[in-house]
Amino acid sequence: MKVYLFPAILTLLVMFSALSVVYVKHENRKYFVKLESLQKQRDEMDIEWGQLQLEQSTWATQSRIEDLARKRLGMVNVPQDKVVIIKP
Fold first, then answer.
1. What is the residue-wise DSSP string for 26-63?
2. Which pLDDT score, from 0 to 100, does residue 15 have?
3. For 81, which DSSP code?
4. Could you read off the pLDDT of 34-67 as tens digits, one per residue?
5. At 88, is the secondary structure helix, strand, or coil?
6. How far apart are CA 63 and CA 15, in angstroms?
7. What does pTM read for this prediction?
8. DSSP secondary-structure letter at 77?
């Protein structure tokens, strides 16, 4: 009876080990796919961030602000003869 018990236990341990390897490989692949997905999402967000920074710099240019001040607010440059410099 003891002669058959040892090979049976070894067989069970080998089967358990094999199933564990399969499970770990499956989990590893699943996490790798998730990692690639997150890296792709990061890259897309980096591109969007760059585009937003470019758009912001375009909206804040001096010439655009001056143009809006002239058109919307009716502002004009002060003529040089109207400028008064105050010295202490």
1. HHHHHHHHHHHHHHHHHHHHHHHHHHHHHHHHHHT-HH
2. 97
3. G
4. 999 999 999 999 999 999 999 999 888 888 888 8
5. coil
6. 74
7. 0.59
8. P
Are the C-beta atoms of 69 and 75 separated by less than 8 Å? yes
End-to-end Cα, the chain, rounded Å: 112
Q: Record the tokens describing residue 62, joined without a space.
A: 């001096």
Token pair 């199933």 in the structure block, residue? 19
Which helix (H) or strand (E) segment is 87 a member of? none
Bin 74: left if φ > 0, else alpha if -120 < ψ < 50, else beta. Answer: left
The DSSP call for residue 82 is G
CA distance 87 to 15: 94
